[in-house]
């Protein structure tokens, strides 16, 4: 990196084709990029060529902001947040950058001469699917808010060559297709090979005495992998701040296998190259048993070591030593996936920078903070000692030492309590030995947080109870939030316009201002236009559905939507039980007056999760039978939209009337889709789980369709010996519905197909669908009635939007900044030859 003294103001550019924001300059720039980057004349340019030319045109306009931001951070020696996450599900960049720069209209005009619409070019972008779901998307929303709030921040992660698989549906079943998001190039990233770092794996350690007579440990690795950073600018909304998302790609070290190569072992050398490149090759889907997957641990250590080395390099550029490291960096662990960082920072400080243990530990503990995202015990990460010790021998030693010193302290607090010791230990020694990553994260962090109020309470009472007892002051809640820039402004321009017309545009940065909409709930004209807007959006979605899956749906029906990863605890199959109940009622009473509904599902199942895949098959089977039943007459439609992702989310949240948030109480840590629906004017049917509780508190109980057991009731019922068969035998309608599914009625007479699913519910039902069934059905009847009174429904929808201010990720990030990271905004001044944002 150039030192601040040696940096010079780039003398080449005064206002020109790469910085100007007016329509004419952008038009010129587009033609220029089409020729000089894509190598195409306008008459031969494909849609993708035009997209690429436009993307580069916009990237050009980000660059001065980005470089100025980084230069300012260096000069001012700021405190920086590093968000370490194995996943960043950012979604397409183009539209968001246009909005944040404030040049959407200018670009729309500039593009029109190509004969294409801006929206078509926006749709051309392949989204980077570098995440599974909520956790990865949260990281992306947080980067948006960090930049918008002008906080110095870096998002560190992995540049997977293949992101989350694309989903196709064949004969009702999920089929996974490789996600080739990089095949046409990625105009938003810049590789920085000069900032590459090396990461060791395998081998052994040895001790030695250094020149000062100190005992030290040295790691002789089996192989070394190089990490190359790829940087993407993350621009804030109408500010000059552009932070960096720095994703690491793994490559072979040229130098490492020359010995082999020169000895003639060409294939051995190539093997090493292949293995090195595999590390960042593919994103692991969640809900897969990954304990045994060594490559996953390699991924985690790889990106964490690269990122910490990168911070240290930047730090030493500005500071004489690492003594102040924890004062300049706050490192957030997005779940336990990067928690090996605790041991890695210790290694770097002790082995490489020769700190003594206590000083290194002080710095480490004051650097990290840990966010937990799950209460499911089976989802807590642990690595078999055998794998861990073989792959990361030096880190294994350090973890033993951390644990040893930690347990020595514990013994003083709890003398003679061996149970306590083994429950708190970082090493699980109850059977096969494991490293418990959540324990490492808790011991090595200054702060620990859950992602919704209930979730944090349950962490304290349950999953992390022993740690809460030890250091209660470390624990706090940070309820999740989502960025209104992507999830309202970009995805729902019609609603954005309607809101802004009434209350101005301040709400985009201060979502609490949506409260101003409450003044318009009694305005009949406003409600009319609200309904027209919703209808138009639903009609757009109906067209899209017809195009994608060839099903015709009526935009005047109630759009009842459940989109999220497919998991038993999320209970998509409870939704199906409701659909089959309505169908069964209509079969018995064809003239029954019900509110016509369109049920829309979307979501991916982990490739190895049999029950989740069977749920997808069930949804599609029920959809087909109902669709082909003429007696239903369009009163019920069921659609499973394949390949749910960020791009499709942006289409579907604005079009929903009803948001399904129906997880078993105590299982969904927070949920964030629940927030996206509600801020787009959908009402929620939900359990008292995750952030649903807080959403209901904000919008008011009268605006929320509540059903189901509470967490306490779930626990109590389990403790008393829950028996789903009682519900099966005592509820006639429920029994009829389960029997219908079990009979083969939806599977062309094949009564074995859905047997595992039905039997699981009747005999085990770990997520208590049968216990919540009647309450759900009754609640849905209330929904149907409420929808019939459209004036009433509109009032509720408007109030929902008006009261969602709390759920902006800006609020979440402000709380992290003040209560965990202790970082402050830094204003970025652009050089005066750069045109300010519109
Ligand atoms: C990804 C990889 C692994 Cl190995 C395990 C889990 C995941 C993952 O995607 N988890 C996830 O998305 N968790 C969700 O986090 C959201 C953000 O905090 C929560 O809203 C949601 O409740 C939780 O399930």
From TrEMBL:
EC primary class = transferase
* SUPFAM superfamilies attached to this UniProt entry: UDP-Glycosyltransferase/glycogen phosphorylase
User: Could you name the Gene Ontology cellular component terms for this entry?
Assistant: cytoplasm
Q: Where is the signal peptide?
A: none
Q: In the record, what terms sit under GO molecular function?
A: glycogen phosphorylase activity; pyridoxal phosphate binding
Which cofactors, if any, are listed as required? pyridoxal 5'-phosphate
Q: Per its record, how is this protein called by name?
A: Alpha-1,4 glucan phosphorylase
Protein species of origin: Microcystis aeruginosa PCC 7806SL
């Amino acid at each position: 990196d150039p030192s601040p003294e040696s940096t010079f103001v780039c003398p080449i550019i005064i206002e020109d084709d790469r910085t100007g924001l007016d329509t004419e300059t952008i038009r010129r720039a587009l033609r220029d990029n089409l020729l000089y980057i894509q190598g195409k004349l306008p008459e031969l340019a494909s849609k993708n060529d035009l997209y690429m030319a436009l993307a580069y045109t916009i990237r050009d306009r980000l660059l001065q902001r980005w470089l100025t931001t980084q230069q300012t951070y260096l000069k001012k020696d700021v405190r920086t947040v590093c968000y370490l996450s194995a996943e960043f599900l950012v979604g397409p960049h183009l539209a968001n950058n246009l909005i944040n720069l404030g040049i959407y209209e200018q670009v729309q005009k500039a593009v029109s001469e190509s004969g294409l619409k801006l929206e078509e070019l926006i749709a051309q972008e392949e989204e980077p699917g570098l995440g599974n779901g909520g956790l990865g998307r949260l990281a992306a929303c947080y980067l948006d808010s960090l930049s918008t709030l002008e906080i110095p921040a870096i998002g560190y992660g992995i540049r997977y060559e293949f992101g989350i698989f694309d989903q196709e549906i064949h004969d009702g079943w999920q089929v996974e297709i490789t996600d080739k998001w990089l095949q046409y190039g990625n105009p938003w990233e810049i590789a920085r090979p000069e900032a590459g770092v090396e990461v060791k794996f395998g081998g052994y350690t040895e001790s030695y005495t250094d020149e000062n007579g100190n005992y030290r440990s040295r790691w002789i690795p089996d192989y070394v992998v190089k990490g190359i950073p790829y940087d993407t600018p993350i621009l804030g909304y109408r500010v000059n701040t552009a932070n960096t998302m720095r994703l690491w790609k793994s490559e072979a070290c040229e130098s490492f296998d020359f010995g082999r190569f020169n000895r003639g072992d060409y294939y051995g050398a190539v093997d090493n190259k292949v293995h090195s490149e595999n590390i960042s090759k593919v994103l692991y889907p969640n809900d897969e048993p990954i304990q045994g997957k060594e490559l996953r641990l390699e991924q985690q250590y790889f990106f964490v070591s690269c990122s910490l080395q990168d911070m240290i390099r930047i730090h030493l550029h500005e500071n004489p030593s690492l003594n102040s490291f924890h004062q300049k960096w706050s490192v957030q662990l997005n779940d336990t996936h990067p928690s090996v960082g605790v041991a890695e920072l210790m290694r770097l400080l002790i082995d490489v920078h020769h700190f003594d243990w206590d000083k290194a530990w002080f710095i480490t503990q004051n650097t990290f903070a840990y966010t937990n995202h799950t209460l499911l015990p089976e989802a807590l990460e642990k690595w078999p000692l055998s794998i861990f010790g073989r792959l990361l021998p030096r880190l294994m030693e350090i973890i033993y030492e951390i644990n040893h010193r930690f347990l020595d302290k514990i013994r003083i607090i709890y003398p003679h309590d061996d149970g306590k010791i083994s429950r708190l230990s970082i090493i699980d020694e109850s059977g096969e030995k494991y490293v418990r990553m959540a324990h490492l994260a808790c011991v090595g962090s200054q702060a620990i947080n859950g992602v919704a109020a209930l979730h944090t309470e349950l962490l304290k009472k349950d999953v992390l109870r022993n740690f809460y007892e030890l250091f209660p002051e470390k624990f706090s809640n940070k309820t999740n939030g989502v960025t209104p820039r992507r999830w309202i402004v970009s995805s729902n321009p019609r609603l954005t316009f309607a809101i802004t017309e009434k209350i101005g545009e301040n709400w985009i940065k201060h979502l609490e201002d949506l409260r101003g909409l409450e003044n318009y709930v009694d305005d009949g004209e406003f409600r009319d236009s609200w309904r027209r807007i919703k209808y138009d959006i639903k009609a757009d979605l109906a067209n899209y559905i017809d195009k994608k899956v060839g099903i015709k749906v009526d935009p005047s029906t109630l759009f009842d939507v459940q989109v999220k990863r497919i998991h038993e605890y999320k209970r998509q199959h409870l939704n199906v039980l409701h659909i089959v109940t309505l169908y069964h009622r209509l079969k018995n009473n064809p003239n029954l007056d019900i509110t016509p509904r369109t049920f829309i599902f979307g979501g991916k199942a982990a490739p190895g999760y049999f029950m989740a895949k069977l749920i997808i098959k069930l949804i599609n089977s029920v959809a087909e039978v109902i669709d082909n039943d003429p007696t239903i007459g369009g009163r019920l439609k069921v659609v499973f939209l394949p390949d749910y992702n960020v791009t499709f989310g942006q289409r579907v949240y604005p079009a929903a009337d009803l948001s399904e948030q129906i997880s078993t109480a105590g299982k969904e840590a927070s949920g964030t889709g629940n927030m996206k629906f509600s801020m787009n004017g959908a009402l929620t049917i939900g359990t008292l789980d995750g952030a649903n509780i807080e959403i209901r508190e904000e919008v008011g109980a009268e605006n929320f369709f509540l059903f189901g057991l509470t967490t306490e009731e779930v626990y109590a019922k389990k403790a008393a010996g829950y028996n789903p068969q009682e519900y099966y035998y005592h509820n006639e309608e429920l029994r009829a519905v389960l029997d219908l599914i079990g009979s083969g009625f939806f599977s062309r007479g094949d009564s074995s197909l859905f047997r595992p699913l039905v039997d699981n519910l009747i005999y085990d039902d770990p997520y208590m669908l049968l216990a919540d069934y009647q309450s759900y059905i009754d609640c849905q009847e209330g929904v149907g009635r409420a929808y019939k009174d459209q004036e009433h429904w509109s009032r509720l929808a408007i109030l929902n939007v008006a009261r969602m201010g709390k759920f902006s990720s800006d609020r979440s990030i402000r709380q992290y900044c003040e209560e965990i990271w202790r970082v402050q905004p830094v204003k970025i001044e652009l050089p005066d030859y750069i045109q300010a944002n519109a």
